[in-house]
Design brief:
There is one protein chain. By secondary structure, this protein is of the alpha/beta class. The protein contains eight helices and seven strands; from the N terminus they run H-E-H-E-H-E-H-E-E-H-H-E-H-E-H. The chain has helices spanning about 5-30, 45-55, 70-80, 95-105, 150, 155, 175-185, 205-215; strands at about 30-40, 60-65, 85-90, 115-120, 135-140, 160-165, 190-195. A seven-stranded parallel beta sheet has the order 3-2-4-1-5-6-7, with helices on both faces. Strand 6 (about 160-165), helix 7 and strand 7 form a beta-alpha-beta unit. Helix 1 packs parallel to helix 4 and helix 2 (about 45-55) runs parallel beside helix 3. The longest helix has 25 residues, at about 5-30. Bound molecules: guanosine-5'-diphosphate and magnesium ion (MG). Guanosine-5'-diphosphate binds near residues 38, 42, 43 and 169. The site of magnesium ion has 4 residues, from helix 2.
């Protein structure tokens, strides 16, 4: 039992080493990359679809989709107009840096401006495994409830931007935005936040402006 903590530390530091290699590969290719993390159903793939629809004419976008099984999400990203690769984790509840490392050569890296990685739907495990992407983006959604920052502090603490999706549902679902945002502020003070709806398009422009700014900054 006493050996467990050193073993986990070793796995995590090996992951960080590969994550740093991934970052180098992406930087060398001039690619800006984001890691989308969220619970299942929050709207990761929907935000990818909307982002690709709106930006694909201006920015070359690739998507790497992580799921336990199926290629359903990569199929959706491809149908939206992105180059898409699916990773099946076969049961793992998160992507890790090695999985991304193995997926990167499946893309024409010289032909990509923006890489979006869709992590496995989960609010716990993805927070522990850096992939080497430039930004970690968390997608919350109204039906999940306003208590999630308090219940899953780990994932809310480590992110670079927060999307609050499905704001079209605010009239129908009890969700105290002030309470939610107070919880976020405690964990990630000043976190850049985009309330939006993939369904109606409300709020998408601010998200896309931020993303384009990041892509241009590479
Ligand atoms: N009402 C509403 N539904 C949405 C919105 N975004 C996504 N959905 C729906 O939420 C469900 C899960 O979306 P999906 O993108 O597959 O989530 P993922 O599992 O995080 O990739 C689908 O039925 C979407 O149509 C939104 O902004 N508003
Ligand atoms: Mg999805």
């Amino acid at each position: 039992m006493n050996n467990r903590i050193p073993v986990i530390e070793k796995i995590l530091s090996a992951n960080d080493r590969i994550a740093a290699e991934n970052r180098q590969v992406l930087d060398r290719a001039g690619i800006f990359s984001v890691n989308f993390m969220a619970s299942p159903g929050a709207g990761k793939t929907s935000l990818i679809e909307q982002t690709v629809h709106r930006l694909a004419e201006r920015i070359k976008i690739a998507v790497i989709d992580g799921d336990i099984a199926t290629s359903l999400d990569a199929d959706r990203a491809a149908a939206a107009g992105a180059v898409a690769v699916q990773i099946n984790t076969g049961g793992d509840c998160h992507l890790d840096a090695v999985m991304l490392h193995e997926a990167l050569p499946r893309l024409e890296l010289g032909d990509i401006d923006l890489l979006i990685v869709e992590n496995v739907g989960n609010l716990v495990c993805p927070a522990n495994f850096q992939l080497g992407t430039h930004k970690n983006v968390l997608i919350a959604s109204i039906p999940e409830g306003d208590d999630k920052p308090y219940k899953y502090p780990g994932i809310y603490r480590g992110v670079d931007a927060l999307v609050i999706n499905k704001i079209d549902l605010l009239p129908y679902i009890p969700f105290r935005m002030d309470y939610f945002r107070r919880g976020v502020e405690i964990l990630s003070p000043g976190l850049v936040t985009f309330p939006l709806s993939c369904q109606t398009g409300e709020g998408l422009d601010a998200w896309l402006d931020w993303l384009c700014l990041q892509v241009r900054s590479v």
